[in-house]
What we know:
Blueprint: H1 13-54
Amino acid sequence: MYMSNQMPKNATPQTSAKDLATNTAKLDEIKYQNELSKQNIKKVENENSLMIRKH
């Protein structure tokens, strides 16, 4: 682990750009999964709300 002001010894603009692209892609995937989870939670909450109203 590097401190925020330290660069890895093998760091180059190319490797840093590649790492950034990889991290960005991973972050985008996490955001997408997060959004799907939120939608599923809302769906279940709505279904539960409807079930409660029927009883």
